[in-house]
Amino acid sequence: MSPSAARVKSPRDLRTERRRRSHSCWDHLIAAPLWPMHEANLGTLLRTCDAVGACLAVPRLPWVPEALARGNTLRHPACIHWTGDQLSWLTHQHTRTDTTIVGAELADEALRLADLPPARNRTVLVLGHERDGIPPDAVALLDLAVEIPMVGTGASLNVAVAGSLVLYRLAGLL
Length: 174
Hints:
The chain is an alpha/beta fold. The chain has a single domain, classed as 3-Layer(aba) Sandwich (Alpha/beta knot).
């Protein structure tokens, strides 16, 4: 295809190709930035969740509701689950037999992102603190850790970028 043959899709084209209405809760894929550090990351993850058909689970820290309200650039309400205590919520998710807990974490025996299969059952993607990662008590609850390979000098990606990459892979869109 020559460069001049490309056609940008119109808003009408996009509306007919995508879901017909907003959802109340997909609950199949949940992004869980349980230890958020930066407000902007929550807005970015909220937008990615909408793009891949996922929900967002966040703790009710004093600044989180306002950050989500500012970051929600969508034209409809987003699917947000409030976790309360992060570790208690994650422990409850871990006890569900229909749920796989995946953590984006640099850990021994972590699966490379390219080898991560799409989610086949209810999956929670745990994202840690930008500086400290996922706390050790929470790492113990993971069924699987996924690592995003990097060739640069940085140790890791920003939480919103890392979460977005893993969500697209889990959704089978990448």
